[in-house]
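Example 3.
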Amino acid sequence: MSHPTDLECATLNDLTRRDMLKGGAAAAGVATWVATMGAPGRASAQAPLRPNIIYIVSDDQGWKDVGFNGSDIATPHLDALAKTGVQLEQFYALPMCTPSRATLMTGRYPFRYGLQTGVIPSGGSYGLAMDEWLLSQAMQDAGYRTAMVGKWHLGHARTELWPRQRGFDSYYGPLVGEIDHFKHEAHGVVDWYRDNTLVREPGYDTTLFGREAVKLITDHDVSRPLFLYLAFTAPHTPYQAPQEYLDKYPQIADPLRRAYAAQITAMDDEIGKVVAALDQKGIRENTLVIFHSDNGGTRSSIFAGESEVRGDLPPNNGVYRDGKGTLYEGGTRVCGLANWPGQLPPGKASGLIHIADMYPTLAALAGAKLEKNKPLDGYNMWDHLSGRGESPRQEIVYNIEPFRAAVRQGDYKLVWLPLLPGRIELFDIARDPAEKDNLAESKGNQVETLKQRIEDLASSAVQPLLLAQMVKTTFGAPPSTPKADESPVTATPGPNEATGQDFLSAIERRD
Ligand SMILES: [Ca+2]
């Protein structure tokens, strides 16, 4: 079997997608797909295609840290998917794990249910609101076999918050946000589940996730379609990788960057095995594969999680400013791709896509009814992904929090920090993607328009659950003064640590 050269591939990609955009689907010789444009959450009127869907999310990966965005980190399997699929040039997620994953699962911005700020900490007792109708539930209702492998991070304090109770037929992985990749522990407590049962298994988490995903595909009953949400913990801190992957990067002197690169290549290998399993099963032609990071790469140790990391952190967001935890492009515009042989012509989708769009897009493909969900914030992106039309989205809501917000309409983006000392920045993202040139003083009209939009969105926001939890934890804790028989030097841990530890111990005892 011969493969086209890069030049041939590029020419073919450009022509195919251009023809489809100009001449419509019929000109390109494929079935017409009539998607509803302009109305968030509206599904297509066309009969659903009901593909298998393998939805892969990486964790804290830098925009540039994939081969197809120019990295020196080896990601040959992702690169192959990008080359034969659609690169997502303006795919936006939320700036941290919990809000991003919540938006994916609900199709709704996280300020609508209190998950807009921070992440659910290991000691947190709250989770994703139970009255949200999740993507997994919609897919399950539509007759899909639903499976989740990997990191959940949408609530762990009560079993009702766990994936098995939220629309997934099976679950395998950690519930909290950051674990030791070999020990599967957070704060010394194992956080590793099969369905609702705590399990102890040896191995590197990324490898175990890949193995589980391959087994799910291999054993899948093809009489109904599969929805697999594969949420890797790579390349999140702590930066750890098996020696065989570290050995692939002798040229990288910085041990953090070396481990980070090794984590990504290890994940890429597992993704390669997943694609091979689809081929082996004979279902590749009827399977949509999506991949993206849940937020930008970490550029500040403040947002590196609970691991101790210092210095110049390894993730690389390319030209994009800053990283995880911030509202700048480096925190929110993430590397991504979609791949479906025969349905998605190779090329690039250059329009605005928000992670909230994936719910209505996948629901339409699956034939899932949009009846039980609350009003969606996303658009059906199928026309845009498949090269048949422009993106219907004109606005990106980066996040709305009581103390900061950012919204982009067209090319203009406002970053607003109203907390004193306040800051307002306006950027022309098309002209200045690196956000270096603050236009706020010279473009007063745009500033006022976007401020008003933020005020309007904020007026319907639920207060962040994290802040309520922090107040409760802090003010509900006993005095932190040293006990009578202890010196101040060996004082008891702070209230947050003690609460988190007790809490996780309780989880571990749960069966
Ligand atoms: Ca993350």
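The longest strand covers residues 347-354. Residues 45 and 499 are 51 Å apart (CA to CA).
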